Request: fold
Amino acid sequence: MPIHQPQQRTDVQSDRTGVQQAEAVLVEHYPRLVRLAYVVLPPALGRHRRVLTAHAVVQRALPVTGSGTSGPRVPAQSRRTGAPAGARPAPQGASADRGPSGAAYGWVRLRVLRAALAHERRPRWWPGPASLRPALPVVWGLRLFPRAGGVDELALDRALSAVDGPVRAAFALQLLEGLDESGVRELLAGAAVADPAGAVRRAARLGRPDRAGAQAMLRSGEFDPCTVQTRPSDLLRRRHRVRAAAVAAALCVVAGGLAVAAGEGTPSGGGGGGRAAAGASYPVLDPAELLRTAAERWADTSRVDFTAWPARGGRADDDALLGRALRTWAAPPESVRVSTTPGTVTVPPAQPPRLLFAGEVDGAAVVLLHDGGVRVVRYAEPLSGSGGTALDFARADGADVTTGAAVVVSRTGDGARFLLAPWIDESATRDLLAPDAPGRPLEVGPDGVTAAVPRPAAGGACGTWPVLRLRSSERIVEKHAFLLTDLGDPAPAHLTYTPKPGRGAPARQPREATSTEALLAWARTACSLRTLAGSGVRSVNNWAFAEQKLPEGGASADWLCTRADTWRGPGRVLVQFLGPASSAREPAVVVADRDDTALCSRFGQHVLAGTRWKAPSGRWYILAAGSRAVARIEVSGAVRGSADRPTIAVRASRDADVELTASLRDGGMLTAVR
Reply:
């Protein structure tokens, strides 16, 4: 035993030196580490709590004395000198390992990253960190938040709030820490992330196409929790709470004795009531704390989205109903039916939500809440009968004049009622499968709730496709009509149209689907929307990317790329061929179907597609068409052919196996989408 004692002493001294190096790193790079923690923490915490939590995460990165956590094994010399990777810590004066590339900094950064990511893995009912230790610093009576940036910073913050913690971590490690993809994957794996490679791939899509601009924004004051502004909390409400606390303390003495006496005769097993009661104690679950927007605020703000909606409905002042809605959100009992659109979290609100509506609709008391950035939540309880309580979560980040124009407030078997935004001046319905039929006026109540709108058929024959046709107010300089359709989610999807490419004209941009050309295209593609039901679709665009003269008679056909963008980011694409038709509603032919793709978006502007087509003579052809940048198309395989233009038709048997490729004007190559 005496032989090993010097080695043990050396290890203890080495660990102590390593912790001292880590402490020096924390002090030297504190602002950098706090910024990293702030970006990785869930934006749903709210800026005040995220600032304090970021500081707490970094300040608690060092192990508590006696905790048993060993310090970093800091190499005695810089690796540039050729020292082995497993060397023991350097003396306290050595500073090379305290730099951003040193082992001590890497050890502290990993602990900060683990702690920040742990906040997204906390229990659903617990609003704070996963650990039960109080997280200092704590600020009373003040609200802290970083300096506000511009529109671009707000857009980046919204994009970060739409992804999970590992993706935010990968994004920050690349742009703030300068790590390459392999380094990020290794660090995320060390932080116990389940899919580091997937997080890196998804992070690569953030901030495009201007990654340098995104890096500059991450380093701006918008994401700097060390340079903050302060505002007081609600002073009057705080005074009332102090007085109420004094009264409550006195009552607790009496109530405690009564509770003990009553408890002797009360059976155990409350059936989950404890969680709901605990949830009621959170300030954000107090109906009195709900945010309410002034009635005319929407006409005097540059942020025209759900934050501009006033509180409406006949029960907007019913604290009992609002309290039940908030407590159910915090801890839904087993009997409550909970539904979410894909990519929507169900955690309790991090700050008091905004009240949009509370009233009675179709035999239910309905409450609509907005958490300030990401979600719209619908609570519904039956007024009578045996119907169950429902809680629906929907994404709402990045909503605007059109995508924030309506929310489903009630849905029955045959139709749905919508709560319209306060900036909607005119409302009507029309049938997408009847492009020549005029719209019908839609009745809207004083509280903004519409009459029932028939729902598109979910299965069977596709005979009609009802849509909302809304017009915004000229008071927001956005007076235009647009179409929304119900795809089964709380928020309807916005329909747009991109016209055919013009000769020598610049690339067209999506526009409202209200023109005759747009309505004719949607009449033949509307029924394909049934495949998108319940998938959290935000908007659907029909892009007429090519027009083709058909062989044997010269009739025309159109090629459309129907792109559905979801609230969470990924899109789905259907490429459809619109050949000659006997009626305006004859369905198009779907020739390609792709999920999770950038095709037919601003980040995927080139497309090539093909199909087999039977001419009136009975002959079969291979048809292909490309977008406006396609200069040449080649057909190979069972038949061969080429054309120096964006379309081609080649005679072939019905079952001919061919490959389609295209050359772009800038020298790139395309293969056909399938």
In short: The first strand starts at residue 142 and ends at 146. The mean pLDDT is 81. The first helix runs from residue 5 to 28. The two ends are 72 Å apart (CA to CA).
